[in-house]
Amino acid sequence: MAALEEGFTLSAVPLGAGPHGLLGVEQSDKTDQFLVTDGGRTVILYKVSDQKPLGSWSVKQGQVITCPAVCNFQTGEYIVVHDNKVLRIWSNEDVNLDKVFKATLSADIYRIHSIQGTEPLVLFKEGAVCGLEALLAEPQQKIETVISDEEVIKWTKIFMVYKHPVVIFITEKHGDYFAYIQMFNPRTLSKYTLVLGQEEKSVIQSFSASVDRKFISLMSLSSDGCIYESLIPIHPREPEKSQRVVRSLLLKTVVSGNARNGVALTVLDQDHVAVLGPLLPASKECLSVWNTKFQTLQTSRELPQGTSGQLWYYGENLFMLHGKFLTVIPYKCEVSSLAGALGKLKHSQDPGTQTVPHFVNWETSRGCELGSQNSEQSKRILRRRKIEVSVQPPASKQLLSAIKKDSEKHIEVELCKFLAIKRTPDFHTIIGDIVLELLGRHKAEPSFYPRNSLMQLIQTHVLSYSLCPGLMEAALEKADVQMLQLCLRQFPDIPESVTCACLKIFLSISDDSLQEAEINMESVSDYSGSVQEEKMEEQTEILHNGFNPEEENCGNCDRELNEKPQDTAEETTLCPVIPKRAALLNAILHSAYSEMFLLPHLKDIPAQHVTLFLQYLYFLYLKCSENATMTLPGLHPPTLNQVSLFFLVKSLCFGLPLCLFCKFHI
Predict the structure, then answer these.
(1) Looking at the 3D structure of the chain, how many domains does it have?
(2) 584 and 468 share a domain?
(3) Less crowded by CB within 10 Å, the N or C end of the chain?
(4) Where is coiled-coil annotated (predicted)?
């Protein structure tokens, strides 16, 4: 069970008065001592156990510290950067920073990284990472430009992997985020694009990361209040090529989505993260601890004086600004167990701390039964299960073995067992292997179509079209509209040819078949009704591709549209398709595509289906026009721009008069 102990104020004077709050809190060469860099001119060395400063150093008036001070663990000296390019190196005996060693470099510094076991590494704002000794030997050497123009570094961290340093830094450009991994044995730089998973595009407010032998687990707290995780391989197969990693949802709504300031995230251990920010829109800022293994809020503490949105964690201490003073809150955590996650373990609790068992729906009641046991019983049960599991083959191997020979029902059972265990760093790779194995057997045995298993795997949010292109191909072959809709919502990289193939099926499938299908209806709401089948057949006979081919000029089109305005209004109040078909068509409108690559494939769609789709687009436009905000009802409806753009593309593709688009768009 995680617990926040009684905190205390470390600094007796206000800090963080500058625009960036504190620049940083860094470990010294003594376990209990920390360097605190204010956002102005001062570096203070604190001893936490004594709650007092041991030393203080300042740059002179007119100079500004621009990077957090760090300790060189190889020499015991301290290093700080002022005015972006000037290094100062000193020891405890020095008093005046103006008289200590100075080196002026040729490029702006973003951060100096220092960690036990290696020399300090300097990360420049242009993305290059250099060792301190090489820079001191030749301070004015030319620094390589690594990142592109307008790309800005947002966050960085250093790890030791196999006794060698690894530096990760995140950049942002026009709302897109990129991760760079700098290795030093051998020296390689890998670049990854952080691809959105199930979430809408949002601003990332805070990053944190942990590492194992194979992967860096990059966590990000976004403006929607959720925490997402990306697993980045430390040793990529092709480090020289730019690659993509998907952000998958880890924890939902850990802070209010309305929070814009005072929000931060840090990893505490394998199963816990700490978050700064309000839990509810109207609540005060607070520090909360979440269990990522069991998806529970373990504990929280209100911070009535507010924070700067900065959080540091070393050993068993959390550092933050509470109001204007640096505050330390000790953190304790027992071994993660289900009973502890649900708040059932006996423990002492600080009266100012709230423990909130905020948990998700468990698939079985076993977890609740375990939670009702006392601490000793829980430990015995978990110990016994651990022994049982240790003599069995890994769940993924059991599942892959079952896929080769067992029935669909048995595979579903094995898949549920696999998905119930904690995700490992190579989870997305295993999921890809499972999907490929299922599709391989389906290809060899056409009667074998493990639909339920494939649907479960898609909903893990780690798949993409490029990882398993055969998945949508199988769904198209089976006309599985529910799976196609889910793929359109989840996959960010579907080719335009496949999108058009989905559209063709969505328009051609019968209403009776759709009534039996389970379609997600979030994007459809408050449609006043649908046109009867007989009426649609009559309209299809009159209109060809949305207009009368005998009328060749725009004047005739205007006259036709204006002759019977009353009848037109009556017809367009009804949706031309049933709600389930509307939900499928909305999935097409939401999908990402390029007009240039979309046009050739649209021409393969029969004219009567094109007419029906255009009528539906026009209906959506009229629904948008019914309110002042020009938006559609529903939880995730298409936007007016999506509707208008698709209408224009189809108009250009099928040679419709431009005046129809003008009337539609206006």
Answers:
(1) 3
(2) no
(3) C
(4) none
Is the separation of the CB atoms in 636 and 523 below 8 Å?
Answer: yes
Among candidate residues 447, 448, 457, the one with its CA nearest the CA of residue 403: 448
pLDDT given at position 121: 97
In a domain, 628, yes or no: yes
Averaged over successive runs of 10 residues, the pLDDT of the chain (666 residues) comes to: 83 64 88 88 91 91 92 95 94 91 95 95 96 94 92 95 92 93 90 76 87 88 89 80 85 78 87 88 84 86 87 91 88 62 46 43 35 42 38 70 88 86 78 91 91 90 85 94 91 87 92 88 66 41 40 44 43 76 88 74 84 85 67 64 59 49 42
Dihedral sign computed on CA atoms, order 443, 447, 452, 455 = positive
Burial class (CB in 10 A: 0-12, 13-18, 19+), 174: exposed
| Nearest partner of 578 among 632, 510, 484, judged by Cα | 510
Nearest to 338 by CA among 377, 388, 285: 377
pLDDT for the residue numbered 630? 54
Domain that holds residue 459: 395-502
Do residues 495 and 603 share a domain? no
Q: How many CA atoms within 13 Å lie on the side-chain side of 203?
A: 10
Paired residues of 325 in beta bridges:
322
User: Which of 468, 502, 536 is at the close of a domain?
Assistant: 502
Q: What is the pLDDT of residue 348?
A: 41
In a domain, 299, yes or no: no
Task: Identify the domain boundary among 93, 113, 146.
Answer: 146
Domain membership of residue 67 (yes or no) is yes
**Closest to 531 measured CA to CA, from 470, 483, 574, 495:** 574
Is 214 a domain residue?
no
pLDDT value for 357: 41
Do residues 585 and 480 both lie within one domain?
A: no
Do 142 and 24 lie in one domain? The reply is yes
| CATH, residue 82 | 2.130.10.10
Q: Find the helix or strand (DSSP H, E) in which 153 lies.
A: strand 152-161
Instruction: Return the residue matching tokens 């649609």.
Output: 536
